[in-house]
Specification:
The chain has about 300 residues and is mainly alpha-helical. The protein folds into two domains: about 210 residues, Alpha-lytic protease prodomain-like (Up-down Bundle); about 80 residues, Cation efflux protein, cytoplasmic domain (Alpha-Beta Plaits), CATH 3.30.70. It contains nine helices and three strands; from the N terminus they run ααααααααββαβ. A hairpin with a 2-residue loop joins strand 1 and strand 2.
Length: about 300
């Protein structure tokens, strides 16, 4: 099972890859815009510039969130991930509404735009799609393994780039052969809708974590299953969880035979904690030991 340190390395690799790809895309799309003077390319260039700024901030926040606990933050700094994800969701929403507004204006008040060197722009946007797709593939793997909301939010930026990039290619092609630039605005509105939906999911998850919502029910049920069948444990109660960034904080009271030695009780609690950490490496587990009572319920 990957350790929290392994998760940090994977998250950082996704962050560095995101910043690098964003910088390449900004340079590539700036060249394409200067070649074509296409507004659709200019819109995609603006989006990539925003991606670069947000990705750079996300890397900095991941570094901060990985700092060990100190006197002022005894549970660590992982909530910084949720603050960053919430800010990213807000930025994504603003960008989406800006795209929708600009698209509607262009549909209702069409302007004649002289587009040149369309093939240069098409090739540049095609390369952008390949780079973006490779980055999204890696970010998806990292998100599944680490559960990082920062990487998930960053992935959403680039996922939302696909439609604008395809729209830019389609717009350049239609402008070149059919003089139909309106399709660009329609595609942009669709892409903005995808961004709004994704930002809502990311923002809701970050908000729930900041408000100490319990962990995913599947994780809670998994921990309960481990504790319920662990040797030496006669029952358990007060299983409480909360999330902060990609971390899951777990408190559980286990009921033990009162006649056993302190060392024996400690060994049972420590072995249970190791089992939970093996199943959920992102967890931070505290096990409380209580004397079992024949009249006390054993359900969580």
């Amino acid at each position: 099972m990957p350790s929290p340190r392994d998760h940090l390395k994977m998250n950082m690799s996704a962050g560095v890859a995101s910043v690098t790809v964003a910088l390449i895309l900004v340079a590539l799309k700036l060249w394409a815009y200067l070649q074509t003077q296409s507004l659709s390319v200019a819109s995609s260039l603006t989006d990539s510039g925003l991606d670069f700024i947000v990705s750079l901030g996300a890397v900095g926040m991941m570094i901060y969130a990985a700092r060990p606990p100190d006197e002022d933050h005894r549970f660590g700094h992982s909530s910084a991930e949720d603050l960053t994800a919430l800010a990213q969701a807000f930025v994504i929403l603003c960008a989406a509404f800006f795209i929708i507004t600009a698209a509607i204006i262009r549909l209702t008040k069409p302007q004649i735009v002289t587009v040149t060197a369309e093939m240069n722009g098409i090739w540049a946007m095609a390369v952008s799609i390949l780079l973006t797709g490779s980055l999204i593939f890696w970010q998806s793997l990292v998100t599944r393994k680490t559960g990082s909301r920062v990487v998930a939010a960053d992935r959403l930026h680039y996922l939302g780039d696909f439609l604008p990039n395809l729209g830019a290619i389609l717009s350049l092609w239609l402008a070149k052969d059919f003089n139909l630039p309106q399709i660009d605005s329609i595609v942009a509105i669709g892409a903005a809708g995808v961004l709004i939906y994704g930002a809502g999911r990311i923002g809701t998850g970050a908000w729930d974590a900041l408000m100490d919502r319990r962990a995913d029910p599947a994780i809670v049920d998994g921990i309960a299953a481990i504790a319920g069948t662990w040797p030496g444990i006669m029952g358990f109660h007060d299983l409480k969880t909360r999330t902060a960034g990609s971390r899951v904080f777990v408190h559980i009271h286990i009921e033990l035979e009162g006649s056993q030695t302190l060392r024996e009780a400690h060994n049972i609690g420590a072995s249970l904690r190791r089992a939970i950490l093996e199943a959920y490496p992102q967890a931070d587990v505290i096990v409380h030991k209580d004397v079992a009572s024949s009249t006390q319920p054993t359900l969580p």
